[in-house]
Amino acid sequence: TNSPRESKSGVQVREVLPPSLRIPSSYPRHPWLDVLGAVLVVVFFVGGAWAAYWADHRNDQYQLLGLGECVYGGERLYADCWENKPPGLAWINALGLVAAGGDAIGAWVLPSLVGILCTVALWIAVSKQLGPTPGRRAAVFAGALFSTRAYDAATINPDFYSAILELAAAACWLAAITRESRWRGAGIAVIA
Hints:
The chain is mostly helical. It is 64% helix and 3% strand. The protein has a two-stranded antiparallel ribbon with strand order 1-2. A hairpin with a 5-residue loop joins strand 1 (4-6) and strand 2 (12-14). Helix 1 packs parallel to helix 5 and helix 6 (158-177) packs antiparallel against helix 7 (182-191). The longest helix is centred in the middle third of the chain and has 26 residues, at 105-130. The two termini are 26 Å apart.
């Protein structure tokens, strides 16, 4: 069973992990490893996006970019332009176009930025529960995994966005169940 511990504010909080898996609060910090981990995460996502951009058989990506351009140009989805993908992807790609002033590079850069932000959320959530080293390792592993073609790397395809946003939801859920404040935990759970 989980035993209660006392938080900084004096409130009793139940630990999620059994005592054998808990990380002591005095876990050593190595800032240079955090910097290295952050660099690796960025390199994995940017490298994955670059590789996906230059990969063969990208026809579907151009159709999805065209759908984003349709929304960016003020046209109506499924009336003026059509693709058998959900509308959220068109809006996400249009957001990248808006950020880049209409240049398609925005739609290609946005997945890397979304991937990095979602991975940072995972890093923070795991670090708060297990310590800095497991958080860093989870983030680097996630960056490496999402840079592969298994998830279409960091591209404008729906597979990548659905998988990376699910990772962010899991990170928010982990953060919610480990919160000392019920209201903060409930708020994060709603986000997840």
